[in-house]
Amino acid sequence: MRKLVALLLCCFVSVAHAQLTIEITQGVDNPTRIAVVPMGWNGSTPLPEDVSAIIAANLQRSGQFDPVARTSMLSFPSKDSDVFYRDWRIMGTEFLLIGDIEERGGRYYVTYHLYDVLGQRKVISAGQVDGGAGQLRDVAHHISDKVYEKITGIPGAFATQILYVEAFQNTGTQDRFRLMLSDADGARPRMLLESDQPLLSPTWSPDGRQVAYVSFETTRPAIFLQSLATGQREQLTDFTGLNGAPAFSPDGRQMAMVLSKDGNPEIYTLDLRTRQFTRITNHYAIDTEPSWTADGKGVVFTSNRGGKPQIYKVTLASGRVERLTFEGEYNARGRVSLDGKTLVMVHQRDGVFHIAAQDLTTGTLRILTETNLDESPTIAPNGAMLLYATRFGGKGILAAVSLDAGTKYRLPSKQGDVREPAWSPFFN
Amino acid sequence: MITKAMKQGLSFVFVMAFLAGCSSTDTKTDSDADAGANGGVNTGTANGGSLGSSDGSEEGMEELETVIYFDFDQAVLLPEARSLLLAHAEQLRGTNTSVRLEGHADERGSREYNMALGERRANAVRDFLVLQGVNRSNLEVISYGEERPLALGSGESSWSKNRRVEIDY
């Protein structure tokens, strides 16, 4: 059967027309005014990407910046000597980013400066970054990260990527499922896998080099591991029943998952080197959706052992299980932030499914989203935003919200139903 | 799966078998137009085969509903499901007919939890049939969670159709 299933394995096949476009729906109250001046460029042909526009869009999407429109700029300095603070001060600009792009031997070299306009000082002096012909977006994301960190004190996560599943399901036609990879802003979507059987639960290895997911291509669910660089795949599980919800441990040595081979859905860990499976939970109820705590010593999971789905945590060394959520009748698919302070989850209130965040110290739960049918929250590696799946205009889309709920934006898809985002780690 | 749409409106195994055969032409047309996605043909063929065998096994076979419905976040059989399953058990008892029990959930809540819930539902159907004397080894359970809705769209009218177990002869 396996060989009959249409399965198109593509490593970095461009699907340009399916790009997700951003719609910002809410930003913070007093965003920082920043002018991102078009970068100087003396080449004979236009650059393939507008680096400054990408940087401005990145900063705006974070919700913490209000980029100055180009049409409002009084001058377009690209060199340090061309900067006059008063041109920017009179417009209420707080920060100014300028830069110059040169091309040598097919490679772009960017020099950029960031100014504190009110303080009349340079805060980044002659930052340098270079990239090949196809890497101007990466260059823009890199500069965005530097600017964001300099001003907010938080590392930027613009140079990261996301995985997601795109599904095409219409009455009377064959279902199609695609595992997609794109930049964090939805640009440059690439198809990693296509199948006519369900694909779900994509997740990253902590080094960002591999992805794992569940595929029904064998007519039953199985967990697969796939290298991003080579496209090489490996089937990790082939048990009777559920084979789902893969989650790499923070050190990348183990994978937690759900298996129901012994009759009930239970959490297991797989040692990726020895290929040894260890059963972690033991309960007749549903235990599923494992996710590691940042220190790798515990796994949070969803269980309906209390009658309704709630989130629990098991300490691996002792096997001790504790319940983490108590508010509401449906809390599921928890993810713990990297600082260990916040648990985000799917939370039902008044029959509506939202994304909520619970402070793990105080226990206070806060609903972050106003949309309905929200699921699959995934936190950015800098902890500032989370992506989730929701429905908008009758379609599955991805949306983002900051962990303080102050900033919101949507990444609607022009094509199929988009779902199950997984935000990459930092690539170092 | 091309037969998914056909299955939606059809309750009778007999009719399903008949139409699954007919629909193979549509399947090919669809996949031709789709250029490259020819998986529908394979899936359709596999389905048509199993449906055909049940059609031929007993000419006057009882016309039974093949979808069992459930309440939200529940895997407990409803009273009407029990009477239907008794009829299926009657039909299956003492035979070697292989049946695939496909568990499903509506779109609400999280996907992997729904995957487990779909399995719970299919297990409930399996356990009931086994208690009624059906050979357990002839019953295969698989869950698709919320990945294969019968009715597209959001709202209770769709959700109630999607919280189900399909008995696939």
UniProtKB/TrEMBL annotation, chain B:
Gene encoding the protein: pal
CDD domains membership: OmpA_C-like
Domain OmpA-like span(s) in chain numbering: 57-169
Name of the protein: Peptidoglycan-associated lipoprotein
Subunit text: The Tol-Pal system is composed of five core proteins: the inner membrane proteins TolA, TolQ and TolR, the periplasmic protein TolB and the outer membrane protein Pal. They form a network linking the inner and outer membranes and the peptidoglycan layer.
Residue spans of biased composition, Gly residues class: 37-51
Cellular compartments annotated: Cell outer membrane
Signal peptide annotation: 1-20
Gene3D superfamilies noted in UniProt: OmpA-like domain (3.30.1330.60)
Job description of the protein: Part of the Tol-Pal system, which plays a role in outer membrane invagination during cell division and is important for maintaining outer membrane integrity.
Record-stated family: Belongs to the Pal lipoprotein family.
Membrane-topology annotation of the record: Lipid-anchor
Pfam families recorded: OmpA
Source lineage: Bacteria, Pseudomonadati, Pseudomonadota, Gammaproteobacteria, Cellvibrionales
